[in-house]
Amino acid sequence: MSDDMYLDQQPLGAVTFAENPEPRCPCLLLLDTSGSMAGEAIAELNAGIKSFYNELQGDSLAIKRVEVALMTFGPVRVISEFNTAECFFDPQLEAVGDTPIGEAIRKGIELIRARKEQYRANGISFYRPWIFLITDGAPTDEWQSAAALVREGEQSKAFAFFTIGVNKADMKVLKQISVREPVKLQGLKFREFFQWLSNSMKSASRSNPGDRIQLAPPLGWSEI
Amino acid sequence: MSWKCSASSVTGRSHTDRGERGQDYSRAGTLQIADQTFFIGLAADGAGSTTDGGRGAEIACETIWRCIIDTLREGTDLYGISDDRINEWVTASRDAVNTESESAGKRIRDYACTLLGAVCGESWAVFFQIGDGAIVITRNSDYETIFWPEQGEYANTTFFLSDEDYREHLLIRHCDTSPAETALFTDGLQTLALSFSAKQAHAGFFRPLFIALRRDPGNEFTPFSQQLTGFLLRSDVSARSDDDKTLVLAVRD
């Protein structure tokens, strides 16, 4: 078949597309696994994370674009580096230790910085990272320097930092850490929270240049 | 010398799903002045988060179109088109957008759009751009991007004509030859037409399109732009990008 016939039969059919890595939508979860979370709270948190992963895995774009990293405190540990939903596993977190929020934030911000470097080095475009800090207590370490890093990062749009208080969380301190208003979780509605988060990540991972990413109001899981 | 050119803008699924109008706009044509022919190609992409980005794109293109034609009619040789003159075109188009936004009681950023332009003469060409999208030309049978898409730090941010500091993001390039082939496209086609890891234009995208335009008999009943529109709406194209898409093509004999 000649080139001409091909073009006649299937106009512009021979066009091929460049292969490009999907843009990434990173989200870091800083999770309180101190002793006070033991029992129902940690069980509900684990169930919530599991449903969060399932939701993202069921979405054809989110599975390729959304990257989640898990860090727990205390002690501060990276449970999972940034990974797309294909690589998610059931973390089965346990509640032990104290509440070093300051250290968790500092290490979390460093993790984000390193990930951005990797994206840039590999020509991968990305959305502004989100950090969610979830705690039921108050910092047991120095947190003021971490709060300064959060303010700095928010100002330079290096990331967006959100705080969620559970049970008897010290909302006053959370307010000093986060530029954005902390939100109080209604009871132990972790599953509802993660459902909301996966919806927000799905829509963020679809946004195009010029779109402003707006989070849906935190309905169904927060105390307002 | 003769030119063939064509342009098409289609609405992406991200807009049609919500019943919204497309926000891309394009304009392409050739102009004969005395014994010289010129190709003018323009494309603009209204910002997705705005109410009137599509209108901004239209006003910007139409205003700059008239500015370019006026400049060429003055008899200014393309050699003589300075960066200052291009700045004047762009500022005039921003002023026109501003006038409309003010009379509608809105802010200019409600009309935010990117801007891509090419003016090619017989032995000279100028290109300009604010924001993302790209212009690709052939040079020695290779495909070359005039500017790599100007993106902000994040995948959903870029620069707009409506920005206060639009002049800082206005990119201008002069070429002392006229490209045999020129393509302008908005960001909806970026990931299909450009390889980001290799940072170069994807030849497999452009070659068949330019060949098809060259071979097009120029039938007014089935203009090439119809084929182009059909291509931009093809399912394998929209599967890769749900954004609005604009493609302007020109070939020179």
The number of helical runs of chain B is 7
Structural class of chain A: alpha/beta
- Helix coverage percent of chain A: 25-40%
How many helical stretches of chain A?
Answer: 7
Strand element count of chain B: 12
End-to-end C-alpha gap of chain A: 69 Å
Oligomer: heterodimer
How much is the radius of gyration of chain B in Å?
17 Å
Q: Could you tell me the number of beta strands of chain A?
A: 7
Order of helices and strands of chain B: EHEEHHEEEEEEHEEHHHE
Distance N terminus to C terminus of chain B?
6 Å
For the largest beta-sheet of chain A, the strand count, sense and barrel status come to: 7 strands, mixed
Tell me about this structure.
The complex is a heterodimer of chains A (224) and B (253). With 224 residues, chain A is of the alpha/beta class. Helices cover 38% and strands 18% of the residues of chain A. Chain A contains seven helices and seven strands. Chain A has a seven-stranded mixed sheet with strand order 3-2-1-4-5-6-7, with helices on both faces. In chain A, strand 4 (130-135), helix 5 (144-155) and strand 5 form a beta-alpha-beta unit. In chain A, helix 2 (40-57) packs parallel to helix 7 and helix 4 (101-121) runs parallel beside helix 5 (144-155). The longest helix of chain A has 21 residues, at 101-121. The radius of gyration of chain A is 20 Å and the shape is globular. Mean pLDDT of chain A is 85; it is low at 1-9. By secondary structure, chain B is an alpha+beta fold. In chain B, 30% of the residues lie in helices and 28% in strands. Chain B contains seven helices and twelve strands. Chain B has helices at 13-16, 53-73, 83-103, 190-193, 203-215, 224-232, 235-238; strands at 3-10, 24-33, 36-45, 115-120, 125-130, 134-139, 142-145, 171-175, 181-185, 194-195, 200-201, 245-252. Chain B has a five-stranded antiparallel sheet with strand order 1-12-9-6-7, covered by helices on one side. Chain B has a five-stranded antiparallel sheet with strand order 2-3-4-5-8, with helices on one face. In chain B, strand 10 (194-195) and strand 11 (200-201) form a beta hairpin. In chain B, helix 2 (53-73) packs across helix 3. Chain B is globular, with a radius of gyration of 17 Å. Classes of the chains: A alpha/beta (224), B alpha+beta (253). The interface between A and B is large, with 31 and 48 residues.
